[in-house]
Design goal:
This protein folds into two domains: 3-116, Luciferase, domain 3 (Roll), CATH 2.30.38.10; 126-222, GMP Synthetase, Chain A, domain 3 (2-Layer Sandwich), CATH 3.30.300.30. Helix content is 22%, strand content 28%. The chain has six helices and eleven strands. The strands form four sheets. It has a four-stranded antiparallel sheet with strand order 3-4-5-6. A three-stranded mixed sheet has the order 9-10-11. The longest helix has 10 residues, at 176-185.
Length: 223
């Protein structure tokens, strides 16, 4: 749920906030009577019955400091007991019973959590790593963008190049130069700028509404 969607709902008088959970662990965080500004950028306060630890990806098993990004690991009474295929559990759980979600995020001093992406959704361009979600959240603020997905495509020189796949609002037009100007105003690092823009009529999604990025990668890599 992008910040722009939450702001639009608020302008229409509809209170909306984000929560964080998964099929494996449904109730990790949520909002109650929290400041509206928190609901725009964060994914709720960690519930009292949930245990969270954040591990730095570059140094596995090292706890992240407050505000530092790492992999979210969880415990709690509603955590599932394991996958039917036992070999999946070897990767999902560590020796102390922590469930490794595969999500990247940070936890602040007030116990609010912010999800910044997936470990598998990190783009590596010329050795520099960054989250596709950061760009998606920014691009969703552009008035011409209805939906978007950012992916890394194979590139002989860069390792991966950044590609933005966009569904436009009816009657709108968007060019790669428009995207660059918009991101320049947002003051993000230039190495994160998309080098390719694809306009599509719809994004491929699974039944729960998540974008099937592997389909975009496969089709655009082949193309």
């Amino acid at each position: 749920m992008t910040p722009s969607l939450i702001r639009s709902a608020a302008e229409a008088g509809i209170p909306v906030s984000r929560a964080y959970g998964s099929s494996e662990h449904p109730t990790i965080s949520g909002f109650e009577k929290d400041p509206p500004a928190k609901a725009v950028e964060l994914d709720g306060r960690i519930h009292e019955h949930i245990q969270i630890k954040v591990e730095v990806i570059a140094d596995p098993r090292r706890p992240a400091s407050r505000g530092e990004v790492g992999e979210i690991c969880t415990k709690g009474p509603d955590l599932f007991i394991g996958y039917h295929r036992s070999n999946f559990n070897e990767e999902a759980f560590d020796e102390d019973g922590w469930f490794h979600t595969g999500d990247l995020g940070r936890v602040d001093d007030e116990n609010y959590i912010q999800i910044v992406g997936r470990i598998k959704d990190i783009i590596v361009r010329k050795g520099q790593k960054f989250s596709a979600k950061e760009l998606e959240d920014l691009l969703s603020e552009h008035p011409a963008v209805k939906e978007c997905a950012v992916i890394g495509l194979p590139d002989a020189e860069r390792g991966e190049r950044v590609c933005a796949v966009v569904v436009q609002h009816p009657g709108s037009t968007l060019t790669l130069d428009d995207v660059r100007v918009f991101l320049t105003k947002a003051a993000i690092a230039r190495q994160k700028f998309p080098e390719q823009l694809e306009i599509v009529s719809a994004l491929p999604k699974n039944p729960s509404g998540k974008v099937r990025k592997f389909e975009l990668r496969n089709s655009l890599s082949a193309g």
